[in-house]
Amino acid sequence: MEKNKQLGESMVATASHAQITEAVLEKNDENHFQVKVIQQILWVDGVRYKLREIYGISSATEATGNDNDSGKECVICMTEPKDTAVLPCRHMYMCSECAKELRLQSDKCPICRLGDKSR
């Protein structure tokens, strides 16, 4: 597997944009298989980015069909749609205006209390 990984990354090094998806096939029952994504990597102009899940984004996109669904609004102001993710924890639960205000008050995520280690 490591040799295949090195081969994939060396092929990407020559391209300006590429995506690598590492996945495995899992057998569900006698006749059915399921693909399970292990990780995704993007290469843009020679720079490698590892894609990560954003927690809370699925409820925001799933709720667009019905305006009565909860889960799509900011948990702070409860009026605007959530559109901002907190790093490094990747929680997405608030709007950009509330995120700006919260950033002035604290470096910690109100959901998990993980602080921003990049500052």
Q: Would you kindly provide a written description of the structure presented here, covering whatever features stand out?
A:
Keywords: Lipoprotein, Metal-binding, Myristate, Transferase, Ubl conjugation pathway, Zinc, Zinc-finger. The chain has 119 residues and is α+β, with helices and mostly antiparallel strands. The chain has two domains: 2-51, no CATH class; 57-105, Herpes Virus-1, CATH 3.30.40. It is 23% helix and 29% strand. The chain has helices spanning 2-12, 57-62, 96-105; strands at residues 17-27, 33-44, 47-51, 84-86, 91-94. The strands form two sheets. Strands 1-2-3 form a three-stranded antiparallel sheet. A hairpin with a 5-residue loop joins strand 1 (17-27) and strand 2 (33-44). The radius of gyration is 19 Å and the shape is extended. It starts with a helix and ends in a 14-residue tail after the last helix.
Give a summary of the structure in a few sentences.
The chain is of the alpha+beta class and 119 residues long. The protein has helices at 2-12, 57-62, 96-105; strands at residues 17-27, 33-44, 47-51, 84-86, 91-94.
Task: Give the domain tally.
Answer: 2
Strand content of the residues, in percent?
25-35%
Biggest sheet details: 3 strands, antiparallel
Spans where pLDDT lies below 50 across 5 or more residues:
63-68
**What spatial form do the alpha-carbon principal axes imply?**
extended
Q: How many E strands?
A: 5
Alpha carbon gyration radius: 19 Å
Fraction of residues in helix:
10-25%
Number of helical stretches of at least 4 residues:
3
Q: Spell out the helices and strands N to C.
A: HEEEHEEH
Content-based structural category: alpha+beta
Mean pLDDT: 77
